Amino acid sequence: MSLLPNDQRQLLHKCLLKYVRNHSSKSELDSLPGTEKIDENVVMRTLAMWLDVDLESLDDKEKPVDASLLPRKWNSIVRLQRRIIELEKQIQELTQENETLMNEGPVSLASKSSLTWVPRDQSKININCGASVSSVKLHPELPLLFAATDSGKLLCYDIMNSSMPTVSVQAHMRGITSIDVIMSEKTECFVVTSSKDLYCKVFRLVESELQPIRSLAGHEHVVSQVRIWKQGSDTLVATCSRDLTCKVWDVSNGWCLTSFQPHSEWVRSLDVMGDYIVTGSNDCTVRLSHWQSGRGLSNGIGHTFPIERVKIIPMLQSDSVADEVRTVYNTYDEAYVNLGFSHVVTASRDNTIRIWQVPLPKFVAHRPPQPDQTRQHFSLVTILKGHTSWVRDLCIRGNYLLSCGDDRTIRVWNLSTGEIARVISSSHDGFVNCIHTDGNGLIRQIMASGCADGKVRVFIK
Q: Where in the cell is it found (predicted)?
């Protein structure tokens, strides 16, 4: 069976004949070894008969045959063949890399390259959300991205096909201030939101639908930030608000477990680990509290403008974690085992990022921890300067701290040296409000950022 249709086969045969006629002469035919004088016309007629082509059709004025068509087709075939070889080689390399990673496991992979990955200057995926993006979060396992906007919409995008959101929910009547995502033991994904409409809401992601399961009401002013985490078999949510309070909620029944006032002004940010909450406020201080008792344990003083974001730097307890991701801030310290961390980082409107060491409270059996009266203030370890405007958000990935701000840049800091590893300044056209990337637990090399211009940029290796 012929690989070409009749019309294409006839055209190819005509091109062959025309090519031979135009590039062969009688002298060339006569000079062939072992041949006598050959009549060129006889040769052409023989070839035409063999190829089943009418010689007179070669000079048809209505449909002339281009003599250069055959070389062009041949060059195209060569280029395609070269590209096929390159793609086959690339597929083979990726297959070998995938097999290696599957055999070595996530710990080995993290020790090699993933946690030392730094995003490049240009994003690979650009998403238009239609309104200022206030918060972005990556799904812990799937290639999904959650984005919240100032219009109150909660969006979910498939990173592999981000032309349209897979889910779009009008979650709140006013702007969403933050979102957080967690996977349960039953492989369920929970998404929690906080808003300017004074509510916090919890959604469950089921296939391509966000199902509302809880609406947490109790704050009397804007809810600034929300965090969700697992405490034993319970799923808990912590919120902070402009009403000066922090609250902890039980997702299973929607009850408020505790409410306390850690600051004298607007509580803008919080982070949680176990029984402890770190908060940042408009009063320019950062505070450590025991949330079950509501007791303040210590605070950090030094910022000259409101604190926009606080982050806990968790200790790395596994000896198998690569040395590339170990720093003085996340090294395992037996003295801090009960606390779970020894350092926190804060971002402020004074254009600086500060790293603090948290003083140890006094632990008493069967009683809430007590503040150490001899050491009530955080110890300032270092100040990271580089941003020229408000620093909005922070994210920790291995040995790197990522920050973004109103100077329209994303900066990557090396925590071991305190130096800037990279400045991403050309991706956004407005204030960069939020960033998110995988932490120490996963191996993906991806970062997402949200901007006041309504765009989400995704940076992938």
A: Cytoplasm, Cytoskeleton; Cytoplasm, Cytoskeleton, Spindle pole
Residue type, 26: K
Would you state the structure tokens that stand for residue 355, as one six-digit string?
């790293």
Backbone phi, then psi, for 133, in 5-degree steps?
Answer: -90, 120
- CA of 35: how far to CAs of 29, 31, 32, 44, 273, in Å? 8, 8, 6, 16, 92
Sign, Cα dihedral of 34, 38, 42, 48: positive
Are 33 and 174 in the same domain? no
Give the E-state strand segments of 75-116 in sequence order.
none
Strand partners, 179: 193
pTM over 0.85, yes/no: no
Whether 214 is covered by a domain: the verdict is: yes
405, 431 contact by CB (below 8 A): yes
Distance CA 418, CA 119 (A): 18
Let me know whether 24 and 129 are in one domain: no
Can you tell me whether residue 315 is helix, strand or coil? coil
At residue 329, the pLDDT reads 78
Rg (CA), the chain: 33
Q: Are residues 204 and 284 in the same domain?
A: yes
Sheet with 420-424, strands from edge to edge, namely 391-397, 400-405, 410-414, 420-424
**What's the CA gap between 410 and 393, in Å, rounded?**
10
Residues 311 and 194 in one domain: yes
146/60 same-domain check: no
Indicate if 379 and 453 belong to the same structural domain. yes
Segments forming the whole domain that contains residue 234:
116-460
Q: Does any domain span residue 244?
A: yes
Residue 85, domain member (yes or no): no
What are the structure tokens assigned to 25, written together? 């002469």
Residue 276 near residue 290 (C-beta atoms within 8 A): yes
Residue showing tokens 């993906």: 444
* Centroid of chain to Cα 271: 20
- List beta partners, residue 148: 135, 154
Tokens standing for residue 128: 């238009």
Q: What is the mean pLDDT of each run of 10 residues along the chain (461 residues)?
A: 67 75 59 57 75 69 56 75 89 81 53 71 90 94 93 94 92 96 85 96 91 94 96 93 96 94 96 95 96 94 96 75 66 84 95 95 89 92 95 91 94 91 87 87 82 93 79
